[in-house]
Amino acid sequence: APSDADAPTIFDKIINKEIPSNVVYEDDKVFAFRDINPQAPTHILIIPKVKDGLTGLSKAEKRHFEILGRLLYTAKLIAKQEGLDDGFRVVINDGPKGCQSVYHIHVHLLGGRQMNWPPG
Ligand code: 5GP
To answer: What's the superkingdom here (predicted)?
Structure first.
């Protein structure tokens, strides 16, 4: 039986294209698609194709160093592709207090409007 860390999420179905999504980037390790509930004119989720226990950033281990770097580097590539030349934001929500809802690590890339530092 799969452990909790290996339990599939909706993102597996998105990667496998069992659930359609608006794909903006894909390579052998990384997949990126538009958020279904965008919080900015550009709102993209960047995820590892293989979760490898990385349900969230709080579960990161040394074996994840490479994929963590690739996720951030891909955010930069997509920001450029999306024309976010005046700036953008990346966010990783973790756990209940971080408002994480899907337990397959994902980097949010937000842009196309002025961001405001969260006052809450
Ligand atoms: P979290 O709240 O875990 O940081 O982010 C999860 C994100 O996944 C949310 O912004 C939510 O809108 C997005 N999301 C959840 N289900 C789907 C889906 O089926 N398709 C797409 N494109 N985005 C989804």
So the answer is: Eukaryota
